[in-house]
Amino acid sequence: MSKPEPFVVTPEDHQPLHIVGEAISVLASAERTGSVEVFLQEGPEGAGPPPHVHAWDEAYYVLDGAIEVLTGERMQTVRQGEFIFIPGGTPHMFRFKASRARFLSFNSRGGASAFFRDVDREVGDTLDVSKMIHIANRNGVQVVAPPTAP
């Protein structure tokens, strides 16, 4: 891989990908940065992925509204101006908690942008669970069972 070049991304440079009700804009892919990936994610209340795990670290910074984040067996609300870090290998999920929320997500290496593009192309806003699980597995993401209630 050649050395990455500095770049700026403007709103005109990207179109959001549609992932089961959520809009995800790829601001920086690992192909472009040589390492990290950055996304702008927004969606309506209740939208978000099922519990899952992947090898890369992930972090969220909430720009507007709030999201509820499950890490392992701990559920917590992360609000505007707050940041959460999730180490790779940690089972996690999130749900948008406000009528409309936005956050930046940061990944320590490539993987998520290819997954998001595949879901947008092959599933989009439809809820085809078996196809989504197949796409996830193909991209190094494993859907896991939610924690059991005490």
Mean pLDDT: 92
Globally, the shape reads globular
Major sheet: 6 strands, antiparallel
Into how many domains do the coordinates divide? 1
**Count of DSSP E strands?**
11
What's the order of the H and E elements? EEHEEEEEEEEHHE
Low-confidence stretches: none
3D structure, described in words:
This protein is of the alpha+beta class. It has one domain: Sandwich (Jelly Rolls). Helices cover 17% and strands 40% of the residues. It has three helices and eleven strands. It has helices at residues 30-33, 112-122, 129-138; strands at residues 17-19, 22-28, 37-44, 52-54, 58-64, 66-71, 74-79, 83-86, 92-96, 100-107, 141-143. The chain has a six-stranded antiparallel beta sheet. The protein is globular and about 50 Å long.
Features of the shown structure:
Jelly Rolls, alpha+beta, 150 residues, 40% strand, six-stranded antiparallel β-sheet
Outline the secondary-structure elements.
Blueprint: E1 17-19, E2 22-28, H1 30-33, E3 37-44, E4 52-54, E5 58-64, E6 66-71, E7 74-79, E8 83-86, E9 92-96, E10 100-107, H2 112-122, H3 129-138, E11 141-143
Antiparallel strand pairs: 1-2, 2-3, 3-10, 4-11, 5-8, 5-10, 6-7, 6-9
Helix pairs in contact: 2-3
Summarize it.
The protein has about 150 residues and is α+β, with helices and mostly antiparallel strands. It has 3 helices and 11 strands; from the N terminus they run ββαββββββββααβ.
